[in-house]
Amino acid sequence: MTEREIPEQYLDGYARILAEISATGRRLTRDELLTRRALGEQAAESGHGLRALVSAHLTAARTAWPASPGSAEDALAAVQQVVDAVAEGYERAQLLAVRQEEAARREFIDDLLYGRSDLGRLAERAERFGLRLSHAHAVAVAQGPAAYDEGDPVPRQVEQALIARFGNHSVLLTTKDGRLLCIAPGHQDDALAHFAKQAHAATDGGRVAIGRPQPGPGGVVQSYNEALNTLELGERLDLDGPVLRAADLLVYPVLTRDRQAMADLILDTLGPLTRARVGAQPLLDTLTAYFDCGCVAAEAARRLSLSVRALTYRLERIHQLTGADPTDPAHRYMLQTAVIGARLLDWPAKEL
Fold first, then answer.
1. How far is CA 329 from CA 71, 135, 333, 334, in A?
2. Binning pLDDT at 50, 70 and 90, where does residue 3 land?
3. 142: β partners
4. pTM of whole model > 0.70?
5. How far apart, in whole angstroms, are the C-alpha atoms of residue 108 and residue 50?
6. CA torsion angle for 301, 307, 308, 314 (degrees, to 10)?
């Protein structure tokens, strides 16, 4: 937008102010400053650019510059005061618009995730944020060491990185319950991968979970819940890697779908470990390390800061208590499944 496109109404009274100040040496009055700020706000609300607005004021100053007596220094000071006031009003209007946009986005996300609006109205509002709810979408959730609000530097940094690469359409980034949340079309896996990379870096090593693409308005909710459950799985199972995908971890929800059956397996298979003098937890940790490293005793011992001999003794003790030998492939699957279930259900810390 050029300065010629700035309507005269935003320069109303400007030439008169310059003439009076050049003649008298006075400064702008409080009412004049308030008027300039108000005009700056109006220009911002009407969609005019700040650079074009400032340029228009400088051009008008050059045109109305007093040719005779008067102080050029006073006139320049007046121009500076006017431009400062206009810019202040403009920035205030922009800040208000940003806050209103953030509030509208938070309200939309809440309604979308909790079903507090009819689908037709929800779809209309979604288009404002570049989403077409008739299509499939996937959701990624990032959790860092701190809780984040939408206006914080971290979400802003990640959002700018996404906009720089994908533009401001189709991909929606916001915050929810202190986490970063990114919604993207189901076919744009590269957008979610880029979000994961940027969020991991911006949150100082935070973890990101990505739900599977799901169709329709309810698909966003389903993918979001999958991402949250995946984050929880990552914490409970201490899974490696900064980015976890729900599609790669589908076996774990299957294992816990029948909670009572899993509880029975844990108690029948691992329950005897509670009779150990040191309790069940150290022996459970031994099994976890042993299975996680592919049943390599030397590596498991290193992870547990034990000697190989001490680790071997623990495995033998487990065999004595449970009747199942961790080193025997015939017993290994049952033991490993029970160990995974124990971690998912937080046993023995919680009673089953």
1. 96, 46, 7, 10
2. very low
3. 180, 208
4. no
5. 30
6. -80
Q: Which candidate, 234, 228, 246, places its Cα nearest to that of 179?
A: 228
For residue 85, with 0-12 CB atoms within 10 Å meaning exposed, 13-18 middle and 19 or more buried, which class applies? buried
Token pair for residue 69?
Answer: 């007596």
Compute the C-alpha angle 270/271/276, nearest 5°.
95
Cα distance between residue 331 and residue 320, in whole Å: 13
Residue 195: pLDDT above 80?
yes
Q: Which residue has the higher pLDDT, 1 or 40?
A: 40
Question: How confident is residue 4, by pLDDT bands cut at 50, 70 and 90?
Answer: very low
Phi, psi of 204, rounded to the nearest 5 degrees: 55, 50
Residues 311-322 have a mean pLDDT of 94
Residue-level pLDDT at 13: 87
